[in-house]
Amino acid sequence: MEKYEHPFSWKSLIRITVLGIVVFLCWRLLSVLSIIILAYVLTVAFYPVVKTIQNKTKIPLLLCIFFILVIPFILFFILGLIFIHRIILEAPVLLSSINSVIVNSSMIPDFLKNFSLISYIQSHLDYATATVNVTVIVFDVITTIILTFFLIYDFERLFELSLHLVPGRERDKIKDLLKEITFVIGKYIRGNLLISVICGTILFLGLTILHVSFALPLAIFAAVIDLLPLVGGTIGAIPAVIIGFGVSPLTGILVLILHLIYQQAENAIISPMIYNKALNLYPSVIFLSVLIGGSLFGILGAFLSLPIAASIPVIIEYHKNYKIRDNQIQKMN
C-alpha cells in the first residue's frame, strides 16, 4: 500500500497561528469592532453626500462634514432627549393600557391574561444596570460619530492606502470592486434611514388622525424597528394595534389597516423607488441574512446583514474573474 508523506510547513503553522490570534482578538474586541463597523458603514453612506455638496459649493471638506454630520447629530440628540423624556413619562401609562387590553380581550388565552406585563418589567428591571447601559450606549454613539467624522475626512487617503496593499496588476480591479461595494452599502444605508423617517412620519399622522393615544412614541418605535428588514414592519405594528383595540374594535381594525397599507406601499413603491435595485437579493437570501446577522450580532447584525449579503456576489464575481486573469497570465508566461 502506497504511503503519502505530508511535509511539515512552518509557514502554514505560522499562518494558522496568526489567524487564530486575529480571530481571538476580534472576538474579545467585539464591542469595539461593532463601533468600527458601524462608523465605516456611516462613512460609506455619508461620504458621497459630503463630497457632492463640497464639489457644488466649494466649501472646505471639514466644514461640509460638520454641517452634514455633526450639526444633524446634535439636533437629533436634542430632539432625542426631548422625545425620550416624553416617552419615559408616557411609558407606564402605555404599558398599563397594553396590559389592560390583553387582560380584557376575549381572544387572548387565559394563561396570557394572568401575565402582568408591568410586574414582569418591574421584577426584571435593575435601575442601576439600566443606567449603566444607557451611559454605555450614549458613549458608544458619541464615539461612533467622532470616528465617522475622521473616517470621512481621511476617506480618500485611506482608500488609496488600502489599494497599496494589493498587487499592482490587480489594483484597478480592486478599486472597482471597492467602489461597487461602497455604492451598494451606501445606497442601502441612506435608503433605509430615509424609509424609516417616512415610516415614522406617515404612521404618526395616521395614528393622530385616528385619535390613538401615544401616537408619537408608537410612531418612533415603528420607525426604529422598521430599520430591520422583513420583520421590522410586523413587530412595529403590534403595540399600535393593541392600543387601537383598547380604544375600540373599529379603531384597532383601522390601525391594522393603516399599517398593512403602509407596508404594501413601502414594499411596492417606496423601497424600489429609493433603492433602485441596489440590493438585488432573493427573499430567501434576505431572510437567511437577517437570521444569521441577528443571531451573531443582535440588532446591529440584522441591520447590516443585507448590504453585506449584497456585497458577496460582487466579491464572488471578482474572485472568478481573478482566477480567469491569473490563468491567462500563467499561459502567457
Please write out the topology.
Elements: H1 10-28, H2 30-57, H3 61-104, H4 110-113, H5 117-124, H6 127-153, H7 155-163, H8 171-209, H9 215-225, H10 232-247, H11 249-275, H12 283-332
Mean pLDDT: 75
Backbone CA Rg:
25 Å
Question: With helices defined by DSSP (H or I, 4 residues minimum), what is the helix count?
Answer: 12
Structural class assignment: mainly alpha
What's the end-to-end separation, in Å?
Answer: 39 Å
Order of helix and strand elements from N to C terminus: HHHHHHHHHHHH
Q: What's the story with the biggest beta sheet?
A: none
Helix residue percentage: over 70%
Which geometry do the CA atoms define?
A: elongated
Strand fraction band?
under 5%
**Count of beta strands:** 0
The protein's oligomeric status is single chain
Low-confidence stretches: none
What does this structure look like?
With 333 residues, the protein is mainly α. The chain is built from twelve helices and no strands. α10 packs antiparallel against α11. The protein is elongated, with a radius of gyration of 25 Å. The mean pLDDT is 75.
